[in-house]
């Protein structure tokens, strides 16, 4: 399997934002079925609560107990009064990743990466793609994966829509091209990329549609704002039964000694090339990883 496929094997179907200042939410997160927990120090925390939230996030990282869930902390920007202290304290605590807000250029990635110089080696850097500047520097930002800790991105459409003065409609028509380009840039540099949050908590159909659209565009998963959204995202970004059946048939066909050295096969009435084999292996590996996580 390629290195690109290996990076995507870890399930990241659902990434739930939680304000780090909410002790009850932090405790509940340790038992929720999300793949990723994002402790937020930025948008979800009022200015007067920033220091308290930072201390709570650090304590939560050190206490652990999140099991197979990936633990990420979104810090405040370095241009704010809290950013530098956030990165120093959170980085030293060693979460799985630090999420940098409003990254608009490769230089921004380099600045955040430098601020994490003393963090443990396992702590990665993720970037929020949520500004007009980021839209025009998608390839350069993603390209920093080869020269920094950068390993993931999350699209933020609420901030982007505000900056663009654009309407964020249910079908996200005004942003589909940007979403597709963000995925292409991330894939071109081997990054994980998660779709933007859906502001719909009670409208299940709208959330399901947004998740299907995100999965169709190629996102690894979706960022979420409420635990009620987890199940829908987990289902939408997991391989379907039909995808798994086809994938296993493709793998079996290429493994058949009778097809040794063949680059194109007909499998169940459909053409399958080696590129389909790579994707089939990824989907089967992802399904196995999801099952392993569920059993943990």
Task: Report on this structure.
The strands form 2 sheets. This protein has an 8-stranded parallel beta barrel with strand order 1-2-3-4-5-6-7-8, surrounded by 7 helices. It has a two-stranded antiparallel ribbon with strand order 9-10. By secondary structure, it is an alpha/beta fold. It has 2 domains: 3-236, Phosphoenolpyruvate-binding domains (TIM Barrel), CATH 3.20.20.60; 241-295, no CATH class. The model is unreliable at 1-7 (pLDDT under 50). It has 13 helices and 10 strands.
Q: Outline the biggest β-sheet.
A: 8 strands, parallel, barrel
- The CATH architecture classification of the largest domain is Alpha-Beta Barrel
Mean pLDDT: 95
Q: Using the coordinates shown, work out and report the CATH topology of the largest domain.
A: TIM Barrel
What is the number of helical segments per DSSP (H or I, 4+ residues)?
A: 13
Describe the strand arrangement of the main beta sheet, using strand numbers. 1-2-3-4-5-6-7-8
The CATH class of the largest domain turns out to be: Alpha Beta
What percent of residues are in strands?
Answer: 15-25%
**Number of domain units:** 2
Q: Any key phrases for this structure?
A:
8-stranded parallel β-barrel; globular; TIM Barrel; 10 strands; 46% helix; disordered N terminus; 2 domains; 296 residues; 13 helices; two-stranded antiparallel ribbon; alpha/beta
List the helices and strands and how they pair.
Blueprint: H1 3-8, E1 14-19, H2 23-29, E2 36-40, H3 50-63, E3 70-74, H4 83-93, E4 97-100, H5 106-115, E5 124-129, H6 132-135, H7 138-143, E6 150-155, H8 157-164, H9 176-188, E7 192-195, H10 204-217, E8 221-224, H11 230-236, H12 241-255, E9 264-267, E10 270-273, H13 274-295
